[in-house]
Amino acid sequence: MPRASLPVRLVATSLGSGYSPIAPGTCGTLTAIPLAWGLARLGPLAFGAGFLIVTAIGTWAAELFCRASGKDDDQRIVIDEVAGYLLTLMPVAKTPVNLVLAFFLFRLFDIWKPPPVRWVDDHVHGGVGVMADDLAAGVYGAIVLFALNHFGAVAWIERLLR
Question: Which residue range forms the structural domain that includes residue 31?
Fold first, then answer.
Protein backbone atom coordinates (compact mmCIF):
# COMPACT_ATOMS: atom_id res chain seq x y z
CA MET A 1 0.00 0.00 0.00
CA PRO A 2 1.48 3.41 -0.92
CA ARG A 3 2.28 5.92 1.79
CA ALA A 4 0.46 9.28 1.80
CA SER A 5 2.56 12.21 0.61
CA LEU A 6 4.18 14.50 3.18
CA PRO A 7 1.72 17.40 2.58
CA VAL A 8 -1.22 15.00 3.01
CA ARG A 9 0.28 13.56 6.20
CA LEU A 10 1.01 17.03 7.62
CA VAL A 11 -2.56 18.23 6.99
CA ALA A 12 -4.36 15.01 8.00
CA THR A 13 -2.37 14.64 11.22
CA SER A 14 -2.41 18.37 12.05
CA LEU A 15 1.35 18.76 11.75
CA GLY A 16 2.00 15.31 13.22
CA SER A 17 -0.09 15.57 16.38
CA GLY A 18 -2.16 12.60 15.22
CA TYR A 19 0.90 10.38 15.67
CA SER A 20 0.68 10.84 19.45
CA PRO A 21 0.52 7.40 21.09
CA ILE A 22 -1.81 8.79 23.77
CA ALA A 23 -5.09 10.58 22.92
CA PRO A 24 -4.29 11.65 19.34
CA GLY A 25 -7.73 13.29 18.99
CA THR A 26 -7.14 15.42 22.06
CA CYS A 27 -3.66 16.33 20.80
CA GLY A 28 -5.15 17.29 17.44
CA THR A 29 -7.73 19.47 19.13
CA LEU A 30 -4.98 21.18 21.13
CA THR A 31 -3.31 22.22 17.85
CA ALA A 32 -6.53 24.01 16.90
CA ILE A 33 -6.40 26.40 19.86
CA PRO A 34 -3.56 28.64 18.60
CA LEU A 35 -5.05 28.49 15.09
CA ALA A 36 -8.41 29.66 16.43
CA TRP A 37 -6.78 32.42 18.46
CA GLY A 38 -4.81 33.64 15.44
CA LEU A 39 -7.79 33.52 13.07
CA ALA A 40 -9.93 35.36 15.62
CA ARG A 41 -7.40 38.20 15.74
CA LEU A 42 -7.98 38.64 11.99
CA GLY A 43 -11.74 39.06 12.43
CA PRO A 44 -14.93 37.04 11.92
CA LEU A 45 -14.62 36.81 8.15
CA ALA A 46 -11.10 35.39 8.40
CA PHE A 47 -12.25 32.97 11.11
CA GLY A 48 -15.08 31.72 8.90
CA ALA A 49 -12.80 31.47 5.87
CA GLY A 50 -10.20 29.62 7.95
CA PHE A 51 -12.84 27.13 9.08
CA LEU A 52 -13.97 26.54 5.47
CA ILE A 53 -10.39 26.11 4.25
CA VAL A 54 -9.51 23.69 7.07
CA THR A 55 -12.69 21.71 6.33
CA ALA A 56 -12.12 21.56 2.56
CA ILE A 57 -8.41 20.78 2.66
CA GLY A 58 -8.95 18.46 5.63
CA THR A 59 -11.56 16.45 3.72
CA TRP A 60 -9.16 16.07 0.79
CA ALA A 61 -6.25 15.06 3.04
CA ALA A 62 -8.39 12.67 5.10
CA GLU A 63 -9.58 10.92 1.94
CA LEU A 64 -6.04 10.45 0.62
CA PHE A 65 -4.71 9.37 4.03
CA CYS A 66 -7.52 6.79 4.36
CA ARG A 67 -6.75 5.40 0.91
CA ALA A 68 -3.03 5.18 1.68
CA SER A 69 -3.50 3.58 5.12
CA GLY A 70 -6.29 1.26 4.01
CA LYS A 71 -8.34 2.31 7.07
CA ASP A 72 -11.74 3.95 6.78
CA ASP A 73 -11.09 6.35 9.67
CA ASP A 74 -7.45 6.14 10.69
CA GLN A 75 -7.10 7.53 14.23
CA ARG A 76 -3.96 9.40 13.19
CA ILE A 77 -6.22 11.71 11.15
CA VAL A 78 -6.99 14.62 13.47
CA ILE A 79 -7.68 17.48 11.06
CA ASP A 80 -11.35 16.65 11.68
CA GLU A 81 -10.85 17.62 15.33
CA VAL A 82 -9.41 20.95 14.21
CA ALA A 83 -12.45 21.65 12.02
CA GLY A 84 -14.90 20.52 14.72
CA TYR A 85 -13.25 22.72 17.34
CA LEU A 86 -13.34 25.75 15.03
CA LEU A 87 -17.03 25.10 14.37
CA THR A 88 -17.71 24.92 18.12
CA LEU A 89 -16.27 28.43 18.47
CA MET A 90 -18.09 29.90 15.48
CA PRO A 91 -21.05 31.61 17.25
CA VAL A 92 -19.17 33.18 20.19
CA ALA A 93 -16.43 35.67 20.96
CA LYS A 94 -13.03 34.00 20.91
CA THR A 95 -12.13 34.88 24.50
CA PRO A 96 -9.74 32.74 26.54
CA VAL A 97 -12.64 31.28 28.54
CA ASN A 98 -14.55 30.38 25.36
CA LEU A 99 -11.42 28.83 23.84
CA VAL A 100 -11.08 26.55 26.87
CA LEU A 101 -14.80 25.74 27.15
CA ALA A 102 -14.95 24.99 23.42
CA PHE A 103 -12.08 22.52 23.83
CA PHE A 104 -13.87 20.58 26.58
CA LEU A 105 -17.31 20.75 24.97
CA PHE A 106 -16.02 19.63 21.58
CA ARG A 107 -14.05 16.74 23.09
CA LEU A 108 -17.10 15.71 25.15
CA PHE A 109 -19.37 15.50 22.11
CA ASP A 110 -16.67 13.99 19.90
CA ILE A 111 -16.02 11.18 22.39
CA TRP A 112 -19.64 10.68 23.51
CA LYS A 113 -21.06 10.84 19.95
CA PRO A 114 -24.73 11.49 20.80
CA PRO A 115 -27.25 10.91 18.00
CA PRO A 116 -26.89 11.65 15.13
CA VAL A 117 -23.09 11.95 15.56
CA ARG A 118 -22.74 8.18 16.12
CA TRP A 119 -24.90 7.46 13.05
CA VAL A 120 -22.73 9.74 10.90
CA ASP A 121 -19.59 8.06 12.28
CA ASP A 122 -20.97 4.60 11.43
CA HIS A 123 -22.52 5.33 8.02
CA VAL A 124 -20.58 8.08 6.23
CA HIS A 125 -17.21 6.96 4.92
CA GLY A 126 -14.05 8.29 3.31
CA GLY A 127 -12.74 11.81 3.81
CA VAL A 128 -16.26 13.20 4.10
CA GLY A 129 -17.11 10.67 6.80
CA VAL A 130 -13.93 11.39 8.74
CA MET A 131 -14.84 15.07 8.83
CA ALA A 132 -18.63 14.79 9.15
CA ASP A 133 -18.93 13.22 12.60
CA ASP A 134 -16.55 15.79 14.09
CA LEU A 135 -18.46 18.61 12.42
CA ALA A 136 -21.67 17.19 13.89
CA ALA A 137 -19.99 17.10 17.33
CA GLY A 138 -18.89 20.69 16.68
CA VAL A 139 -22.52 21.71 16.08
CA TYR A 140 -23.50 20.28 19.49
CA GLY A 141 -20.55 22.07 21.08
CA ALA A 142 -21.47 25.35 19.36
CA ILE A 143 -25.08 25.14 20.59
CA VAL A 144 -24.04 24.52 24.20
CA LEU A 145 -21.28 27.16 24.10
CA PHE A 146 -23.69 29.70 22.61
CA ALA A 147 -26.22 28.91 25.35
CA LEU A 148 -23.56 29.28 28.06
CA ASN A 149 -22.69 32.69 26.64
CA HIS A 150 -26.29 33.78 26.09
CA PHE A 151 -27.43 32.88 29.59
CA GLY A 152 -24.44 34.53 31.31
CA ALA A 153 -22.49 31.48 32.48
CA VAL A 154 -19.36 32.51 30.57
CA ALA A 155 -19.54 36.07 31.93
CA TRP A 156 -19.89 34.60 35.44
CA ILE A 157 -16.78 32.41 34.92
CA GLU A 158 -14.85 35.40 33.56
CA ARG A 159 -15.78 37.45 36.65
CA LEU A 160 -14.60 34.60 38.92
CA LEU A 161 -11.25 34.53 37.14
CA ARG A 162 -10.57 38.25 37.58
Answer: 6-161
